Design the sequence.
């Protein structure tokens, strides 16, 4: 799995610790992880649309983004402008 994912509006997410990322998802529903990773890989997808597609509630991905960021596993940053 790659480490940096570009999203719309110049925002990027980076997985800082792959082992901690794997430990975080251990024991959680696989469909939730699949929805989260589908959202990461599709720059134009909204969290609620992807979550619904995988049978999850509209805030399912947001909750995991927040938890992963608080634990220092996922980092959000602005992409540098290309000239």
Sequence:
């Amino acid at each position: 799995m790659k480490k940096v994912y570009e999203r719309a509006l110049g925002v990027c997410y980076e997985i800082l610790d792959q082992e901690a990322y794997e430990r975080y998802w251990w024991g959680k529903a696989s469909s939730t992880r699949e929805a989260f990773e589908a959202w990461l890989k599709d720059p134009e997808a909204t969290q609620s649309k992807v979550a619904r597609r995988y049978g999850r509630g509209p805030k399912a991905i947001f909750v995991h983004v927040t938890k992963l960021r608080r634990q220092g596993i996922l980092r959000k940053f602005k992409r540098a402008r290309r000239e």
User: Anything to note?
Assistant: The first strand starts at residue 4 and ends at 6.
